[in-house]
Amino acid sequence: MVGERGRLAAIGTGAQLTLAALVVLLPIAWMVTGSFKDSTAVTAYPPQLLFRPTLANYVTLLQTMAFARYALNSLVVALGATALGLALGVPAAFAVSWNRMEWPAVLMLAARMAPGALFLLPWFVMFSAAGAIDTYWVLIATHAVIALPLVVWVMLPAFDALPRALVEAAQIDGCSELAVLLRVALPIAAPGVVVAAILAFVFTWNYFLFALVLSGFRTKTLIVASFNFVGEGVTDWGALMAAATLIALPPLVLALAVQKRLAAGLAAGAVKG
């Protein structure tokens, strides 16, 4: 009886995991296969599962768009916002965790949950008056608003799991608060930093709204430039899916490259000391 229940539980778990995988992977498979279909096949209904692959969409993408320049802009903005988010968020998370005060973290989360359009009008007016639209530092600073709450909330469990006796011993030895953070807390919470950096990079790399309004010809990011294929009457779905596939590659490659640290960081953050 126990063995039968175990088999039923295993079957149920397998079915749930299969369903979750299908929900996540089917849109990705649709996007990737669509990028290799011609203009007729990509909009065919019912969808064509068997088709002759073509690279025409990627050729169109690279010929009609300065892909390398826009990709570099996206990389500068995402890396800059991630670095700024880590520089501000890691010390903030350590202070919140050590002092057991939750309101700063809740306030940051509330700002993250607010619609992005709420920030855009005052930002646009302010940066336009300063002549700062279409500059990298504006895009980095505004995208850091996306990264900062993520960093804080990912790092909070990692710092909560840090033995307080270890920090107190470092303080007794004469370490300043900054030294405690850099020499004691960060080496132990390093997997959490990796997770925070990856999530911050992915979210800022893919964020569309701020770059749409605050960038210009010089700093236009890849995800904004790809929407040139969306027109009022006609949309080049093949080229758009090719662009989406290439845009998705850097976060995917990054996650695969550090997947062991990513798993360790997620596991560490799930357990409090």
Q: Kindly state the percentage of residues in helix.
A: over 70%
List the helices and strands in order: HHHHHHHHHHHHHH
Q: Give the number of domains.
A: 1
Distance N to C terminus: 38 Å
Report mean pLDDT, rounded to a whole number: 84
Oligomeric status = single chain
Number of strands: 0
Q: What does this 3D model show about the protein?
A:
This protein has helices spanning 2-34, 39-42, 56-64, 67-99, 103-113, 117-129, 136-160, 164-172, 177-188, 190-206, 209-214, 222-225, 237-257, 259-269. The chain is built from 14 helices and no strands. It is mainly α and 273 residues long. The chain has one domain: MetI-like (MetI-like fold), CATH 1.10.3720.
Sum up the structure in keywords.
mainly alpha; 273 residues; globular; disordered C terminus; 76% helix; MetI-like fold; single chain
Layout: helices, strands, pairs:
Elements: H1 2-34, H2 39-42, H3 56-64, H4 67-99, H5 103-113, H6 117-129, H7 136-160, H8 164-172, H9 177-188, H10 190-206, H11 209-214, H12 222-225, H13 237-257, H14 259-269
Helix pairs in contact: 1-13, 3-13, 4-7, 4-10, 5-7, 7-10, 8-9, 10-13, 10-14
